[in-house]
Amino acid sequence: MTTLTPEDAIKAAASVARDVADGTLAPADLEVQAAAECRALFGTVAGPDDPLWPLQVDIARQVLALDGVAADELAEWLAVARQRAGEPVSPANASPDAVSATSEAHSAASDTVVADATEPMAAGMADAEPEPQPVPEPTPIPPGRRDEYDPLRGWSPGGGLQRL
């Protein structure tokens, strides 16, 4: 392993400055390289045992504060978190029961027909258990390029964290 001395750092900085001045190194290239280095060091979220975890959580909060994640994707992740916690998951936007316009009576004679037709159905429905609600599944994210953010990278759908 080599140690970086102050002289080495000065020479490296001077070399970068010279390359920028000569036009052989563009600032955009430096940004791309810096982003790649940050992604390599910081881009994989390993969990609470990772020394970078507090920083990753802080950045995640900042992204959420700036509306960096769409509301529908946040709802999907909330459903995943509730499912992991064992909470019952219910659809957030449950639509009200539909009422058909054809179920209304059109005359006095049809009132008795509608009432007679609904009584057996109502009696049968009183004993029936409510139909179980489907659990919403998060939409899978299609595989992207290597340089794109993958929220599922490192996530194992097999359960919780493994303790050593």
Automatic annotation (TrEMBL):
Record organism: Mycolicibacter kumamotonensis
Record's compositionally biased regions (Pro residues): 131-143
Name of the protein in its database record: Flagellar hook-length control protein
Superkingdom classification of source: Bacteria
Keywords per UniProt: Cell projection, Cilium, Flagellum
Region (Disordered): 83-164
